Amino acid sequence: MAVKIRLSRRGRKKLAIFDIVVADARSPRDGRIIEKIGNYNPNSNPATINLDLDKALEWVMKGAQPSETARAILSYKGVMMKKHLQVGVLKGALKQEEADKKLEAWLKEKEGKITKKIDSLSEAKEQDQKKKLAEEKAYNKKREEEQKKKLEEAAKVEEAKEEAPAAEEAKEEAPVAEEAKEEAKEEAKEEAPAAEEAKEEAKEEAPAAEEAKEEGPAAEEAKEEAPAAEEAKEEAPKAEETKESEEAKESEEAKEEDSKK
Question: In angstroms, what is the C-alpha Rg of the chain?
Fold first, then answer.
């Protein structure tokens, strides 16, 4: 009967765990087994392997043929190396003590490689966590800056909205001010000819004023003569009265003479 060392699957979907078993080559994968010698969990990093080394070596020495994955597992745990040394001891090429020393040295070297791998994986994990934390901090900082910018923009928009009515009022008042300026300019233009005419009239009146200044003494003389003229006017009626009284006397005398005759 051909015996094989192989894996028997168990566990749930996408998280399978395998048992390392010794079974008949004709049995199905998850069928009847002869003996279970360990288990294998590929979901961890590095993979977790629990193996009974003595039983695995015994079955290998009896001629059990491991599958490819089982052979890799046995080599990883040193079972195949131990088989090789044990064959040399049986043939007399090596002593048991020398074989044990070589096996111990190989196991120590293998353990050193495993520990280095575990350390490197842990360091990589820590660095990855630090990187993620730094990225998260940078993202949060960027997000805060964006929120601040949004708030500032919103405040500017509100200020612009508040200033908009004042700007519209200023725009509405601007045409009125321009119209007032234009009206003032037009009035100034209209008043300019009047001012020029006033200046020309002032220039024309200037000689008359000078003549009036020259005639000033004559006017004073006329003022002095004015009382005399008034006296003459007052005396004129008196003279007329005296003339009338004389004429009346003469007419009466003439009547008296006529009556005497």
Answer: 72
